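Case study 2.
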Amino acid sequence: PIKDLMYWCSKRFNLSVETNGSYLIWPINGMWSTDVKCPSSENEKYNHYDNLKLLGKNDQAKFVIQTRKDFDFACEIVKSKLFLTNVIFQPVWKALPLSTLFEWVLEDKDLNVRIGTQLHKIAFPRRKRGV
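Prediction:
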């Protein structure tokens, strides 16, 4: 819960906090990794775009991409220069081939993003969801 997170922040621990982006973030000792929900997730309405303005050079914003529409949405936000941080594009598992996402990113030479994947799903393919 938020109360526990605030406690650890108050103890001056260097934290790495991953959030789905549906709550506002605040400055911490450490880094934020926040999601920006793309249209195909049907959760785009929960994005707090103000979070992007709070991200610094050590933080990251992650876009989970399923369709070309999601990719174009993510590119528009990244190119808006709304924030200065590390950007990760990640394909939706088994819905968008990693190679397709690479091709789309390589089409735009000015797009400064990293591509990630859900490594735990490759390493542990038989585990159930949420693990």
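The first strand starts at residue 15 and ends at 19.
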